[in-house]
Amino acid sequence: MACFYEAGERLQREIQTLLQREQLLPAELREPLQEVVNSVDKPLLPFPLLRKLYDFLQESGSPVYLHELLEGSRVYLPKVEIPPRNPELVARLEKIKAKLANDEYRRITRNVNCQELNRYGSLADFGRQVKSVKALGITIFNFIVTVAAAFVCTYLGSQYYFTEIAARVLSSVIVASVVGLAELYVLVRTMEGELGELQ
């Protein structure tokens, strides 16, 4: 905090003039002002001493105003010395920073899976895809075999009822269509159930 004025030329001249007339200056002002003038470094004047000097000048009837007296002077701001940091505190702060960085890294990479570094997926994904394609292939094969078997059985069984081939083929197509629709209904219900379980 600033508590000194660095005396400018005007203030130094005024102090020199007052010190030359010793009979006018009281002893309580003379000694501190003499120390200020005799200082080797910058002449620093404390605020209370400056206030006493200004009061004395006003009482003695001097026509000098404060702003004229302080012309060329400036507030002396001492260098702020920063105390050394506590090593325990520094170590603790470093641990906290490292922990926060690790938490941030984990948060950013929580949805990254090392198994899926390949853009086409891992072998486990490939196995699941093959399994679903295999199941679909088996289902289609089963549908075709069932419809074909219904057609063949109806065609062969209808020879006892119909003598004409057109009537036998027509009855076989009708039965195969009914079996195919029934098979599709069961397939759709099964897939619908599987999708319901997934959701």
UniProtKB/TrEMBL annotation:
Q: Which UniProt keywords apply?
A: Endoplasmic reticulum, Membrane, Transmembrane, Transmembrane helix
The terms describing its cellular component in GO are:
endoplasmic reticulum membrane
Leader sequence residues: none
UniProt KW Transmembrane helix keyword: yes
What is the official name of this protein in its record?
Transmembrane protein 199
User: What main location does UniProt list?
Assistant: endoplasmic reticulum
**What organism is listed for this UniProt entry?**
Microcaecilia unicolor
Q: Name one GO biological process term.
A: vacuolar proton-transporting V-type ATPase complex assembly
Membrane-spanning residues where? Answer: 135-157, 169-188
Q: How does it sit in the membrane?
A: Multi-pass membrane protein
Query: Where in the cell is the protein located?
Result: Endoplasmic reticulum membrane
| Highest taxon in the source lineage | Eukaryota
Q: What is the lineage of its organism?
A: Eukaryota, Metazoa, Chordata, Craniata, Vertebrata
